[in-house]
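Re-running the complex after MR caught last week's input typo. The corrected sequence lines follow. Everything else is unchanged.
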Amino acid sequence: MSKVRVATVWLDGCSGCHMSFLDMDERLLAVAGMIDLVYSPLVDCKVFPEQVDLTIVEGAVSNEDDLHKVLHVRQRTKLLMALGDCAVTSNVPGMRNYFTRDDLLRRAYVENAQVNPSIPTEVIPPLLPKSRPVHEFVKVDIFLPGCPPHADLIFKTVADLLEGRLPDSTQKARFG
Amino acid sequence: MSTAIITFIIDGRDVSAREGQTILDVARENDIPIPTLCSLQGLHPVGACRVCLVEIKNTPKLLPACVTRPSEGMEVITDSERLRQYRKTITEMLFSERNHVCAVCVSNGHCELQSMAENLGVTHVRVPYLYPRLPVDATHARFTVDHNRCILCSRCVRVCDEVEGAHTWDMQGRGVDCRVITDLKQPWGTSESCTSCGKCVHVCPTGALTEKGKAVAEMVKRTQFLPYLKTMRESWS
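Corrected-run output:
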């Protein structure tokens, strides 16, 4: 049996959801035996491959790079899972949404700068007007809220998917 | 004095109501669960949150169980796919209307809105978030009101009026502009009517009203005082 092609993507989040994924501990061995991790911050692969079975997205869509990534990933993925509150609700990244983009950049890069106060124009991707959840841009097939979602919940959901079932919709998942 | 007894049906079960009881009162007496947010034992019901909506046979509208009185022979349905969908949507709209960032909220893990979403299986919010810019009033010496987390249930208004007798809290505005206010919409710390009793803080279902000095997930509300006070007052009067 060919292995399930799985990718994970890190957008505007703290990587805590990836940490919670790793908190599956010894169960990672069982999962690793069933999947090919074809793209992830955890593996060294620069280009998002084609024909991915499952992509797990952590983080909100906050800048043009995030947006480009999430659109690209969606095209190449059968099932897309929004993992954690940032991906599902925009959560903490969304707390900048009450300010305009200009006010925010000025506060961060000019008013609070110790040296060279100027708004960057290179390297850092331009911010979108608001940080928003993944499903406001692309279709999301599975939602797993939590900050972060508990490793047991991630394992149950991933295990269900790897065994060809849609995750149990009655299982309890909570924001926060 | 004779008390009229009404017999009606909830979810196929024959139940009876005393005069003045609502569908919610009777359901609770019979251990039939109906989800609620704005309702609180000891305060008058207002039907503000709408999550207690129920179906009534031969009535096209859904009606809030907390303020609807049963009539003889009425057939009430408290759980159906239609009701579950409405309750989920209502909860999602509450999340989208303000800025409920559960992860960094003092009430994380002790919040009635958060557990409502969990129990109804709300895994995401299908309507666009509004992200309004809302104030936090920390002018009171001991308490804070954070409008980002308010669901306008009006429990604070009712407990302050009906139990404390101060009527410091009230509502201003309509729709998405509606806010809870203190006195004549002035900073809470400048309120002359507030007795600083803290009842509003402890009946608040979310992290909108909190005690100062609490960090994330530390704000545990204690509502037990309310039925106790009510019973004591009734027995004295």
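None of the earlier attempt is carried over here. The mean pLDDT of chain B is 96. Chain B has two domains: 5-79, 85-228.
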